[in-house]
Design a protein that fits this description.
Length: 422
């Protein structure tokens, strides 16, 4: 499948230039770019749309250039904004640049060969005003710029002159990358359409040797129409210091049922056939949500953190299935609950072991309300420690039941407590 067809199937493409020509152009390896302005020191989950598209493009053999917009951030993109962005000082922009550079490198191979990480301040800041007007400004029509959606939307509330120049700078980025890097495709959010088309037109007017192409991604909303990427606590950030991995996982776990199919296609690398199997009518939709949350956390925070977060969420909130596994793009991975998991703990004295029965322990751990309830749980094979079924509610605990002074006490499929000897 051509990469454009793949992206369309998964819900990434909103608009594109040169419909048939772009598909043909991408039949062989090409260089493409997406820009990220450092308006904060972290990207948020909305930024995962272009990041995941870059991943698919790179896996299909194309070479990404991730642009950190250290130059354009000093101007401010008016696209999608009802008022002028807050102007950031130089020091804050530089700190934000570092945060974005680290994050982008976590997702995309930007080793300089299979992908590149560049900052547009390197060529925008040295430009002289008069030189820019003569070399680039002469190729822009004010009448045409006024028809851009990002400009029209701001005419009532007001558009500053500095923001009006943003389109010119982004177009210059495309021209610069085509001239020096051989980049032929620019991609971005749907609000970037006017800027992308302006860049393509500039490349044509500057008589570049290659044809320039563009494509945009849709604005992602949830089923209720609300903008994607926010929770009651605010933005969902990719930085674990700003949004913890557990909160990140729970954000995905708690999405609406009707969004699961769309989000699995956009925010995971699972094959589309597998996604259809997970979300067909009658499928366990909560299981599909767990898999979405696990995969999104794995891609952002790594396999180990995803496994730990999954197990922690299971311990706190329960799970959709009886077994302790979740699916990944590489198959089934067993996720063990262990002492590293941030689950609720109960401490008991080693000296009390000989007087403590399993029924006593379930009550002490607040997994049952009474010893009678504990006995019924155990009689129904619902009481376990680790993977071992408890058969006798009155059996006394010994040190042999513990591993390194710890055991995981289970009540049914969904409730767990870590028991720690002191």
């Amino acid at each position: 499948m051509n990469i454009i067809d793949t992206l369309k199937t998964r819900g990434f493409i909103y608009q594109q230039t040169h419909d048939e020509e772009l598909v043909e152009h991408l039949e062989q390896s090409r260089i493409f770019y997406i820009g990220f302005d450092p308006t904060a020191d972290s990207l948020h989950v909305g930024s995962l749309v272009p990041i995941m598209a870059m991943l698919h493009m790179q896996q299909a053999g194309h070479v990404p250039i991730a642009i950190v917009g250290g130059g354009t951030a000093r101007v401010g993109d008016p696209s999608g904004k009802t008022e002028m962005r807050k102007m950031l000082d130089e020091e804050q922009i530089e700190e934000n640049e570092k945060g974005l550079e680290r994050q982008l490198s976590n997702y995309i191979n930007l080793d300089g060969v299979h992908g590149k990480l560049l900052n547009n301040k390197d060529w925008l800041l040295p430009l002289s005003y008069i030189g820019m007007l003569r070399e680039i400004g002469a190729h822009f029509s004010i009448n045409r710029m006024m028809t851009a959606e990002s400009v029209k939307q701001r005419m009532e509330t007001g558009l500053s002159f500095i923001e009006f120049n943003y389109m010119i700078l982004q177009a210059y980025d495309f021209y610069k990358l085509m001239s020096e890097e051989g980049c032929t495709v620019q991609m971005g959010g749907q609000d970037q359409w006017g800027n992308i088309v302006a860049g393509i037109d500039l490349c044509r007017r500057k008589e570049c040797k290659q044809q320039a192409y563009g494509a945009t991604f849709p604005l992602i909303t949830n089923s209720s129409g609300a903008k994607f990427g926010k929770s009651e606590k605010g933005n969902i950030w990719l930085d674990p210091e700003r949004t913890s991995p557990l909160d990140f996982y729970q954000f995905w776990r708690n999405i609406e049922d009707t969004d699961v199919f769309k989000f699995l296609n956009i925010f995971t690398l699972l094959p589309t056939e597998e996604i259809r199997e997970l979300t067909f009518e009658g499928a366990n939709i909560n299981r599909a949500k767990e898999i979405l949350a696990y995969e999104a956390t794995r891609i952002t925070h790594g396999e180990e953190q995803a496994a730990k977060t999954f197990a922690t969420a299971v311990a706190k909130f329960g799970q959709a299935d009886a077994d302790n596994t979740t699916k990944t793009s590489s198959g089934i991975v067993n996720v063990k609950l262990n002492e590293s998991v941030e689950m609720p703990r109960v401490e008991i004295l080693a000296a009390d072991l000989g007087d403590l029965s399993w029924a006593d322990l379930f009550v002490k751990a607040e997994l049952t309300k009474s010893k009678g309830e504990a006995r019924r749980l155990i009689k129904g094979n619902g009481g376990k420690y680790g993977d071992c079924v408890i058969s006798n509610a009155d059996e006394r605990l010994t040190g042999d039941h513990f591993e390194n002074g710890k055991l995981i006490l289970r009540a049914g499929k969904k409730r767990f407590k870590m028991i720690v000897l002191t």
